[in-house]
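User: Continuing from earlier, I have the next pair ready.

Assistant: Great, send them over.

User: Here they are, in order.

Assistant: Folding the first of the pair now:
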Amino acid sequence: MKKLISLLLCAVMLFGGCVSGANIPNTPDKDPTDGTQTPAGDPPITAEPDTDAPTVTDPPDPVERIDYTIDVSEDSYVLNKDATGDTSNKNFGDDVEIHVKNSGGNLTRYGYFKFDVSSLVGDNDFTCIDFDIQLSIRQTSADTPMSIIKVYGVSTDWAEDEICYSAMPEEYGFITSKEVGKEKEVNSFSITDYVRQAVAAGKKEIALVIKEASEPTALHTRFHSKESGVFVPRLSVYYGTKEDNTVYDGLTDIPAPEVSKTGLDSILGQSDISTQRVKVLEDTHVEAGASVDKNFGNAEIIDVKANNAAGTASTHRIALFKFDISKLREDNIFNVLFTFNVNEMEAEASNRDLVLYGCDPFAWEENVVTYNTVCDHEDIINSISTARPGKKSIDVTEYVKNAYENGEKYISFYLTGDSGTFYRTRIDSSEKSGGFIPCLEVTYGKTAFSTSLRYEGENPWDVAMTAVTTWLDRWEKIKEQGASNAELVVKDLSEYSVTVDVASAAKTNGADTKYSPYQTRLINTLNGFKPNKNETDLYDEYGGYKGGEKYAATGFFYTKKIGDRWWTIDPLGYPYYRTAVVQVAHGSSPNQKELTLAKFGSLNSWAESATERLYELGFNSAGGWSEIDVLSKIDNPLSQTTIFNTAVRYGNSIGVSVNSGGGAMDIDIIPVFDPGFAKFADEQIRDIVTPYANDPHVYGWMSDNELSQNRNMLDHSLSLDVNDTRRHYSYATAWTFMYLKTGKADVSLSDVTDELRMEFLAMTYDRYFEVITTALNKYDPNHLYMGCRFLASNFGREMIMRVAGYWCDIVTANYYGVWEGSPSLMKNVQNWMGDKPFVVTEWYAKGMDVWEKNPLIVNKTGAGWTVRTQADRGKFYQNYALMLMECKGCVGFDWFKYWDNDPTHEGADPSNRDSNKGMYSNEGEEYTALSDYMEELNTQKYTLIDFFDER
């Protein structure tokens, strides 16, 4: 690592002197996309029409889904007595702080929080989802700041403006605890099992109470409440576990890879990167209680358990591990992980913290040590929080490096639970047959890029230094944009008077499909709404609304904020609300295309008929993957969009993309820092947009679909094999970023934090948007840039949304897994984007009545909800769209999609073969029970928006 940093320092001196890193602060409902985290595939986009384009496909199931947050809906605290006297009947719902204290009598304070989890109800497939509450400390006791905060479940039967000490809700039981105390620090408490059980039981709200430790301490901790306006309490939803649960074998040393010396692909003049696995020398555990004198040296399972709540040692179990480090290589230890496999965890516990200490390797032997003879531990090395079995790793880099540099031959670890972890964790020992042997994973590395480069004259370290310093400067400008002042949509619950039976988003099973009732809002349940039967008479040729004020007519679509609501303005100058259908094409399979041509005779006849019908239903735009080359050539076409797939296609060209239509990248790294990306984007976008640069019917351009957004993109980039000639620039940028952000000459993987992970992800998207915007401004400055159709989980990430708002005219996202959008999430999105509008570009529901007629349409694929009938799909359409219309930052939505999946299409992606997603069946028949609901809403869209704005 030191040699790597030396290279960085040399690059700084040679190319511009010293650079100081800026101090950059860190800045829902399941949000998978259609079928997976990778999106529907699309036909290749070329300069010439391609009538034989491959079928649009949905992607495979995701390996990892990323997190988002749900803001607290109500919070308060209770207090029995303060210096002024009895406060047991006093309410503190408007306080900017949540007070927690246990004085043993008077002055006791408990904090209460309530979260709306209705968007999670009905999706019980939580096998790869974690839930944390995040609370930020505003102030602590000045003398002894550390406090143990315990979390309990409570009844939701309370209101923040009424709750008081004498009227506290019923308490359900202990969930978890944690030692906290650092001011301005966000603390996470895992409540995974509690949320899962609540959602499985159909609960739409959960509530929690936090208390100081059971024994009086007089410690006083003040948390931010939602009224503080900053560090609002949140429920964080992590799709994909926060631990790598893969158990693997193969414990032999991994030799250093051979270095390719062929042509320009030989990037490394010197290289030496390899991983060595050092198997445990001795391992065992010791037990308190009745087994204080018992030795467990031959046991196949190692147990870990903390002292009990009373502080006695009757339940205590300590794991011991010893390693011979004498065979480590002398130079450049890059990273060391202590890795082991958790075989089993007690079912009662949802989460536990394991704490690792050093201890004297000569003070115990595997076949002799007992609890009564176990040695003391040294200072803490590191800790890990885990909620399920699987492979676990704890970073022990500095401990091992220090021991090795001091000439020590052996080291040993002392592993136990923290003071709040009273449940047993069971680990494979070296004696377990077929188990995973505990080991040290030692990575060595040094890099020196040669002058033989894939891009002549573009040294990776030089490119990286420019990229990171550009980002540091730009982020300051992005922050200066400030925020919008969007208001929270307040739902009138009395309007949700219709019930729809809803099953999970996927994995339905025909007649055995299990449904749950979802409260639903329709046009005819809106209190006081009066339809305008003549609204469509006021539409112009684009579908804009002539019933109100006219604005500047530029001949192209543009965005404008009128009052506190965002609009698109159409080429004639009228307000325009986008109602689109994705993949308006003459077929998504050979069978569908053959049927269409047999019925209409030509593509032009089909395009005219399809467009006329969509206009009748109140749609005014063709969404992504539509046949723009066909639809744009008829009279009075729909407004058009298309998707470039720039990053994915560039990834394909260098061999790092997973598929051609989705946004998945190998190991989730988007190669935007590669000099070739900008050149590729310039040429590709030039070829696509130039023929349409002056076309008034083009609404805008989308550059990719659901690109990788793994929060561990930084970790993956730092851990790349430097022999991989495709990844030089990603590797160099990641390490340069770490160096400039931390200011450490010996920066290592152990210095990575969640804040740095999120900032690196934001920097990646900043570079991506910069490249796309530069090309569009060069070749087509007339049309809107609509971003890259985020996975909706990016909606919950402030830094990402600020970057998107800086570059995009309209931010787009595919928003699945919710029966309707979260008002708090949409409010945050608008505010974070610095006052830019957004469009939801994918959402749908599937009807099981199609399965009854066609047994091949089983609805097991895709992320849309499953309901009983086409009419229920229509009710979902109205319920979902009404919330988007009510949100003043949303300028439209795109329904997914035009055609059903064709289960006979062998070339389709497996996740896009067997579901009722379309407006039209595989036989080309319109689902009129669905489209009737669509028409009723779409042809009232401007009247509805006026209604929402005025009430």
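And the other member of the pair:
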Amino acid sequence: MAIESKSNILNKCMKGISVFFYGMLLLVLLFVLIGQFIFPDERDRTSTECQVFDTQWQQILENGDRIDVCVPGKIPAKWGEKVSIVTTLPEKVYSSETICFRSIWQDVEVYIDGELRQSYSTKDSRPFGKNSAFRCIFVELEESDAGKEMIYQFTSESKYAGTMKKVYIGDRSSIWFYLMGVYGVRAIVSLFLLMLSFFCIIICLVYFIAYKKILPLSYLIWTLFLCALWMMSEIEFRQVIFRNISSLSNVTYWCLMLLPIPMSLYMNSIQKKRYEKLYSLVTIYAVVVFVVGTLLQVFDVVQFVQQLPFVHFGLIFAIICIVATIIMDICKRHIKDYFAVGLGICGMLVSAIFEMAFYYINMNITLGTFLVVGLLFLLAMAIIKTGQDLLDIEKEKQKAIMAKDAQTKFLANMSHEIRTPINAVIGMNEMILRENEDETIRGYAENIQSASNMLLELINDILDMSKIESGELELVENTYYLASLIKDEQLLLTARVGGKAISTKVEVDSEIPAKLYGDELRIKQILTNLLSNAVKYTKQGSVTLKVYSKWIEKDTIMLSFSVKDTGIGIRKEDIPNMFDKFKRLELSRNRNVEGTGLGLNIVKQLVEQMHGKIKVESEYGKGSEFTISIPQKVMDKNPIGDMQQSIRESRAENRTSEKLFTAPDAIILAVDDNAMNLTLMKALLKRTKIQIDTATGGKACLELTKQKKYDMILMDHMMPELDGIETLKLLKADSDNINKDTVVIALTANAVEGSREMYLEYGFNDYFSKPIQADKLDELLIQYLPENLVHMEKKETEAAEETDTAEDDLNPVSQEISSELLAIDRTVGLSYCLNSEEIYKEVLTEFCTQVETYLPQLETALNEKNWAEYAIITHALKGNSLNIGASEFSKLSLEHELAGKEENTAFIYSKYGVYRAALIKLAEEVKAMI
């Protein structure tokens, strides 16, 4: 309480001091006013006080005659003619007195009693031009000058020839004070405008840096800046402030010449470029006047002062255009978009008209005054409009954020809803492939697998695009073997080609470092997109993948991949648009080609995120070449050399054997509201012998966890009543639950970026995304199940040494060919030919032709140890033999295809002799049937 009391006393004390300060300040100001206007005048009044030198002047004519003239006023004179006027000085002159003449574009000489007392000319100091800039000329007087004759001679090659302004007498400081008192307001206003414009320019610059956008207000600010600079250059006492007033006088005209440009740009911007052509005429005229006028002045052809009508015409032209467009917008009801600015412009235009009118009737005391008032009014209205625009932008930004959040939620739901059935499709299909030996059914299952993977790729593309747009896509960099990456893409390319009449080629620079550091998966994604596109848009010819590199730093290379095809090509005008998302070129021509138009956009975004570049070269109708270059850190400078050897080394390091295991004593709980997913989970884990309990919801999960201790819980997120997160919270909060510390994995179809972090934050031990991949699930179980429960089983591969001895078995003579291997079931063959004898005969003939083609290719692949090509040929023979009804030979072809893919050289060398002999014999059998 004591502390609070002291605080209140202190607050009251500070408030009292504030009141005292403002009270005293008011009294001081009041006292100043009383002293100036009520108390007696104590100023010194001397004869040297500044006053107008109001005396009679006479012009001295050429013949010596004198005539009376009025000063200030206009004395008849031609351009370049020297005018001499004379007067008599007062009878009493003080030694500190001066007479001040104000010249306008004139050279001046002043004589007292025939003696030259003062002269003014900028002929030797001005950068260019024929006339001397405006200046106040002071003539010092002496007491002995009283009553003497004073001659003022001046000449000008401008419209100001013969023009005289007021003449002042008094001490120099008094005259300056007087001039500042009369014209100082304009100087202060111009200085204020300069400071205001600088401040606004900084604000607009900060806005541009922050948002990469130009505020329309910035153009108006430059208009204000030019007006302020023009006014500053024209003040009466400018010679006190600026060093070279000749150069400053040129600035006056340049400002006026440039004024229409920012004003037109401002109007064009706020009117949303509806009258861009009209304003372009205004700006072009202003540019021409500026350039031509400057050249004429510099080369002393036509002076700036003589060009004023053209300058003013540019201003009038701009005013007319602005007024006309505003009237048109009023008629079209567009004025509501910028009503405040329109009102401000009307006020500014009225002030500009008054300004020019007063200039031409020689009321120069108003120079800039009216225009400044109009400009400040316009600026106020423009700031109001800009404030409204910024508020609208902020509202739109908030709407965009809300839309983005809605999109993220939608993608999360979409991911879950679509991935859940895909999970079931892929999982069940996996069981068909594992357990069914019927070749026809396996063929159907492979088609299902291919279609499911394509659908999954599409979903992943959409999610990737969402991550890229939100800036949430992160690169996951690790050490990888380049040879393994290339091998995977080579197999993918082969699979994509399928039965198309396309040859494939992979060329790899043997000097590329073998081991690199980067995001291998994203590079694969890029190459997969490019290779898939190349195959899709190529009907015949070839697709070539080239891989090469160059060193850019001590431990970094620029890794380049080139994908070249002989497909349909791209038109030159379409190349700039080909990376737009959801953009497919020549849709009518490519209607039958699959795709969403997302692939290339994702490729470009990923390449740029990895600080790489992408280049496209294409000839319409002849093919295209896409080249990507990505910097990669080198982990091993040894060159890649032989691809096959490099692949074997990478596999030896990454995998000594397959991760096959059993865990018969492990007990896990799978929680999912989808019964099919639970069935799939049991099927996938059948070979592991893991004991699996299932629950179809959160409540059932909590009941089971109270009764039995589990080694792991796989928990789905999206479930009715209690979802996965709520179930986990209740499980962790129950101190009596025997599974409160059990490992819980979030098993969900939500694959949006940031999902893993979210689940970890909620308390899950890890996150696993559907569709369930058997090998990934195995890795997860091995990682989180207790080590004592997991029994690893290594699938031993044949020793490499056996490969050499197996080559002796290539002799087909020593191999025995079973009759079943050569059996041809005519009924099966006819079933694949719509039971048409004619079609079946054509298929048999085609089989013989293909055997003649494939046999030498098979030999070449074997001799060159090109196992990818070996797999491709045996894959084709598998399908072709099944089509004629040779089911057993088709099965043998499948075994060789898989051996080729896995590079199981021991199997190939040991079985090749039988396979080759059987193929030749089978072809002979077929020929006999034709």
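Worth noting for the second one:
DSSP finds 26 helices and 26 strands in the chain. The mean pLDDT is 79.
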